[in-house]
Write a structure and sequence with these properties.
heterodimer, A: alpha+beta, 4-stranded mixed beta sheet, B: mainly alpha, 9 helices
């Protein structure tokens, strides 16, 4: 019954920190994903996000998320996989609101994966951090470890009222009480796209063929989704932008969600006006996207009126 | 005398256990449920040689193989063997415009995705999982349909990403 283990001399035996170091060295080093077909990545252009919240609604509809009600939301038990953070700067009328859609970042070195005692959350070969519901025992460890606060715990088994259960997606499991869940990058859609690709006799999914519900519903097209392994894909091109940044990048979680910084004038034009304008113009010089051009037009217009005033 | 009684008791015990096991296996495990109509695959798929996908039409193009609708049954049984008691049951469902409440034999949990389409397109035969249905008067589940059983085949056939959890679980 017992497996024979190879005897290693205690002197040659590696210490635990050394072993962890070795494991980390082999753990998804750069180039890891090139062995596989895909490295699913999402790029969110914050310059295009106007905070309408359709991504959140679409996510609720697509992934069978329960609506928990006011009292549950009040104690922080809402089930939205995608939340829209609002940052308000300044006071009325000189006010600016910034929006930041936050979903599971599908980190390459995810803290949640290290925490799970039953390996219910793990990294698959496509660069997705996935949650296996039937393996989850609900220790809440992953949600505690997650720096982005995107994991949601089912405190109850939610039921849908009679006509509403007809709109549930059969592609997605309905989770029960005691299960942790989170954004899956709409893996059922990825699976569907792979299925279509196989039917067509293609090896890979084409760029733009698969989009999660949030990306599909975004009216301004802020959310792009695709394969980072393909150098010609939309996300690969966008990921090279100088506006890119990762959420809480200093934690070195290496997220698969890339944000593109918003190009914006500073709020109080008096002090930082010149530098702000310079920064905006620099960004315009670097990229020629439509959003940036719109800003350029706005900026020149502002200058003109100023000149006229003087 | 005493030994003979003991032997008889032992034989009776063994026979009872065997019969009980057989009955329990047939009726209590849900492996061979009693269907609302005694539909015989032996007559249809066996003797008459109707291919599986003549009735289970979605197997090739969908996740589910699908149970044929009553119209499909009535398509033939409007004329064939209309006086049989089982066909009269079928006629009643047809006249009442109700679906037949078939009992699911191969019932997977909700968190398991089994696409029939992919398996059939990979060249798998129906009998490899469902057994020789054409010789079953009442359909019985021959495979365990447990995860180990799925994985053993996936590993044996070296399925691409076949061991990834999210290949089957969602």
């Amino acid at each position: 019954m017992s497996k024979k283990t190879k005897y290693i001399d205690p002197a040659d035996r590696k210490t635990i920190p050394e072993r962890i170091k070795d494991q980390l060295a082999a753990y998804r080093v750069p180039g890891y994903y090139e062995k596989f077909d895909y490295h699913w990545t999402m790029v969110i252009d914050l310059d295009r996000c106007n905070g309408c919240g359709s991504c959140t609604t679409a996510c609720y509809a697509e992934n069978n998320l329960p609506v928990v009600g006011k009292s549950e939301v009040g104690i922080g038990r809402h089930m939205g996989w995608l939340r829209l953070e609002r940052y308000v700067e300044g006071e009325y009328p000189d006010v600016k609101v910034r929006f930041l859609p936050v979903m599971c970042q599908h980190c390459d070195s995810a803290p949640c994966e290290l925490g799970c005692p039953v390996y219910a959350t793990y990294h698959n070969q496509d660069g997705l951090n996935v949650q296996v519901y039937n393996r989850c025992v609900g220790t809440y460890t992953c949600a505690t470890y997650c720096p982005y606060d995107v994991r949601r715990f089912n405190w109850y088994t939610y039921k849908w009222d009679t006509p509403l259960e007809q709109q549930l997606s059969p592609e997605v499991t309905i989770r029960e009480m005691g299960i942790m869940e989170k954004c899956s990058f709409c893996i059922q859609r990825i699976r569907g796209a792979k299925d279509t690709a196989k039917d067509d006799g293609r090896r890979r999914v084409k760029d733009g063929e698969v989009s999660p519900a949030c990306g599909q519903s975004c009216p301004t097209g802020a959310i792009s989704f695709g394969d980072l392994n393909d150098p010609k894909s939309r996300v690969s091109i966008l990921a090279k932008s100088k506006r890119r940044y990762n959420l809480l990048g200093d934690l070195n979680t290496r997220p698969s969600v890339i944000y593109l910084r918003r190009v914006q004038e500073p709020l109080h034009a008096s002090a930082g006006h010149e530098t702000g304008m310079a920064a905006a113009h620099n960004t315009i010089a670097e990229h020629g996207s439509t959003a940036d051009t719109a800003h350029a037009i706005k900026d020149t217009h502002g200058k003109k009126t100023q000149d006229g005033g003087h | 005398m005493r030994i003979r009684t003991l032997i008889i008791c032992f034989i009776v015990l063994v026979v009872t256990v065997l019969i009980g096991y057989k009955l329990g296996d047939t009726y209590l495990t849900g492996r061979t449920p009693v269907q609302p109509i005694e539909f015989s695959h032996v007559i249809h798929a066996g003797d008459n040689g109707i291919p599986c996908q003549y009735c289970h039409i979605y197997a090739e193009r969908s996740r589910h193989s699908g149970v044929p609708n009553v119209r499909k049954c009535m398509g033939c049984h409007n004329v064939i063997k209309t006086d049989s008691p089982e066909i009269k049951k079928l006629k009643k469902y047809w006249d009442d415009k109700e679906p037949i409440p078939w009992v699911k034999v191969h019932n997977l949990p909700d968190h398991v995705v089994y696409p029939h389409k992919r398996h059939i397109k990979a060249g798998l035969q129906c009998t490899e999982c469902h057994g020789d249905v054409a010789s079953m008067p009442r359909v019985s589940r021959v495979s365990s349909l447990k995860m180990g059983w799925c994985l053993s085949c996936h590993m044996e056939k070296k399925v691409e990403n076949g061991r990834d959890c999210w290949t089957c679980h969602i």
